[in-house]
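Practice set, problem 2.
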Amino acid sequence: MKTQQLLPHELRYLQPFVRWLGKHSPDDVNESIDASRLEKALRKRVHGLSLAEAQQRLDADRHTLQSWLESSAAAGNPAHWVLGFLTHPELARELLHTPAEEQPEPIIHFEPPAGWHVRAIPFNLNLRKGKMRAFITAINEFSFHHLQLPGTRMVASSKGRIDEHDVQFGEVTGRKYLRLQTAPVHQRRLDYVLAVPGGFASIILCRTDDGDFDEIPFEAQLRTLRMSGLVRSTD
């Protein structure tokens, strides 16, 4: 998107994040996007408010954004993603009770299948074997629930589908999403949103050439996934 419409004046605090979203390919604007910048902006928006006041303010912003998107925004405006984020029913509570600056960096423990190489970076494990890639990201409880909301996952092309299943790997439980796109290119990708001992994780499993693959050897090791040092959301 070469140019981008400005949001209504009362929503300009969201503009930096929407502008950042607009730099991404439409295929990449999905549930795996890092929402930490948006969460920080929203925390500032509700700072010092009671839960009821914070919910009222977020509701007003959501209605304003929805009205603007329906009446004035161009098709495909990245602010649609923000609107989906604002629909989370526990958003106000989570923003008031889980400030990002107080979250320590978690440690991710995982025993990969034979032949996989692992690189640890803050909040993530990046794994590779040949053309296979896996990305394990530590998330909080709010993100764990948000990533499973209806409408947060979609195939950019109209030719494709997403299948979802409940999964369990030992003590690790959650949802598995098969993203299968048939046009304009064939692409198969697996996403997992998991509750693990000590915390929560989001995982992407794919090939760099978009080819098919067997996920069973990788899934067999998900029972070893653990977290330490991750702050869980409080009520």
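Problem 2, part (b): a different protein.
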Amino acid sequence: MNRALTLLKDRRVRAALVIVIVGATLAIFGYYLATHPDIVPLILSIHPAALALMALAYIGTIVANAVVLGASLRMIGKQVSFGENLSLTGYSSVVNFFGPLQSGPGFRAAYLKARHGLGIGKFFYATAVFYGFFALINTFIIVIAMIVRAPNNLAPLLAIGFALAIVASLLLVYRLVPRARRIMQAVRFSDPNLWFIALGAFSLSLCTAAAYYVEILHVDTSVNFVQTIVYAAAANLALFVSLTPGAIGFRESFLLLTQQLHGIPSDVVLAASIIDRAFYVVFLLAMFLLLLAFGVRTKLDASKRT
């Protein structure tokens, strides 16, 4: 186990794993397209109104992330304008997807340190608080889905068991992980910015679910929004264990493993995932061109040098 963890810390090993996982995922997508020739016309037949709703939902994720970033910075004593947060969030989203090993947070940390003198430790603290809320919200959704799916006589025991497991996990992390303990001790629940971060994390989850819902409905109109919320929660949790851009491979695996919870068929999962990947790449490229047109990259680069 220790040897495996050591290997994962090696950048060359991680880069090789990324190539293998992305390659395998693309091969699976390719096989699916080859064996389901009707999927290509289905993808190309997406109604412009559906594309507009998908774009609106993903714009919502950018805005939610910008709100989280602004509240996170205020929580640690840095005041940054919403426009700058929005620009930084948009550009770092592009970097995060197309850059190596999800490098968006690293770009934000480097920019904020150069432009606003924000220490890496403080940035880590603010980011950890957001990730804590994001993980808690999506884990809660998965747990509720598991309880609902469980037999009636087991549901109460399952609920109590999960509650005890969460409390025990928090206590264990508090005692064994010094950095996590410092973060927990530093959290001030009276700070309104903390709840803005929580609201942003919830909004991010909701906007992501909305985008997925439009994509899934195009493939299978029998799927309801509650199923999609569980589906989105599983997809969001995949981000925490992913090495690949956009959690390619990891997200699809999580969605297939949790199929009994969201109840969406495997072929619908794969078809909707192909639609989402294709649309999101176009969305990011369009956003990148828009940022370039407004000179955002130049302004960010210039401010990092000042």
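Answer key, part (b): The chain has two domains: 1-36, 50-135+182-305. Residues 1-36 form one domain.
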